Amino acid sequence: MNRRDRLIARARQGYRLAFSKEPARFFAAPGRVNLIGEHVDYNGGFVLPCAMNRETIVALSPAAEIGGQAFIEAVAIDRGQAKDRFALHEPIEKTTDHWQNLLRGVVFFLKERGGEVLPARLAIAGDLPIGAGLSSSASFAVGIATALAKHSRLRLDPVDIAQIAQDAENHFLGTQCGIMDQMASAAGEADSALLLDCRSLEHMPIPVAKTLSLVIIDSGIRRELAASAFNDRRKECEAAAAHFGVASLRDLTSEALEAGRQGLSNKAYARARHVVSEIARVEPVATALVTGDTAALAQLMRASHVSLRDDFEVSLPQVDRLVDVVAAALGSGPGAMGGVRMTGAGFGGCCVALVRSDEAERVIDAVENDYNPLADIPASAEVYSLTGGAREVTPDQ
Ligand code: GLA
Prior knowledge:
alpha+beta
């Protein structure tokens, strides 16, 4: 059985255990890894994430109304088969539970934007590590939104689905995330990265050269302070934009950044410099992905990491060392075999490497033989594939 079939079997079994019936339909929503454009989405800039082959599966069947009342009933298989149940025609209340709030938020915003949500029973299972920076939460929300939208025959496109999932995170969980993760999960395309303008939400697939492989390195460090630090960074960026008199840092040129820095603290200047320089790296990385230019990837990803480390201050010493070890194995200059950097919100989580396919093993070896022997927490590296966005799936697909 392949990975997806095992996950579907798990969702099916969880559904049966909870509701004593077989589910009728299955939906899949992938996680994402960001290739370049970090901490740029909430500044209205360009990002280049891709959907990858770890995902959330939602098993669903229509539910009958009970005593004239329509309900959503759900079981979260990976959270000890925890359940939730709420009426669709009454105000949707928040609970104290993270996953219930995400579910409830999705249903709330589906109703607001899409129309009537039909009663359903859901069982949700996933194979994305939680807190590793691979968007398990966006994939969960996009999976539920896709499943319930299809079930309720709502006319919503992937952008609507992504916005609904983001609204659920922002308003039901209080995380001030941007839209990158949800867009990658909803609108990703196979073998491609997604070049996304986070202001207009215009997006296009960027086909990745067949000569390149995607390696994700999990530092094993789980992000704990990430949510508060994330919200702080966002406020700092907004304050810097206000200083320069622009709607968001996307509108700031590097000339205007230098010319107008008087009166700005060094920290605020550094935050703005990261965003401006990172946005400028996005298109060159897209070009390097298409042509398979590993020397350019090495240089651009290095610059991104240094900027996140020094100007945006979202890395950790262990993650810096991991990146340095892998970068040393890949080489630099015209002969570089690929690039590596931290990815996602930061403070632990994962690093991403884009490397010549015949050198992917080199990354795995470097992590196991050069980094792990000296690390308190071992890291692990694996080759992933770039997949399509959320959709209905059939068990033998
Ligand atoms: C998290 C957020 C995204 C984005 C990244 C940093 O993943 O959810 O919206 O801001 O961090 O690039």
